[in-house]
From TrEMBL:
Transmembrane segments: none annotated. Residues 17-86 form the PRC-barrel domain. Pfam families: PRC. Gene3D superfamilies: PRC-barrel domain (2.30.30.240). This is PRC-barrel domain-containing protein.
Amino acid sequence: MNTDYHFPISSSTTCHCTIKTARDEKVGKIKDLMIDTETGEVVYAVLAIDEGFLNMGTKLLALPWQAFHFHTQQHDVIIVNVDKEKLEKAPGFDEDNWPSGPQHEFIDDIHTYYGFERRLIKA
């Protein structure tokens, strides 16, 4: 996550923030944060897309944590730095079918898809 200022924030706070695009379009809410148990790093956020945003019903997307930054004036808003078109085409999942299998491959895939380099932090 990119911020102009750094401060700790609770996961529950992020889940109550409104997620918007840089064009001020409401996208949805963060449903969950996925944390690497070895490093403590937030590796991705699970974004619950609002039904009306992509005209396709509720969809869950995994996005790299680096894809988000806090709105500088509205502290209850988080901006997602991904184009609407990229989100429309993104591989998603539903509430009953979360990603499984080797997580490191999945995490690498979402970083590649969204164009973010995965930071490898040594514990």
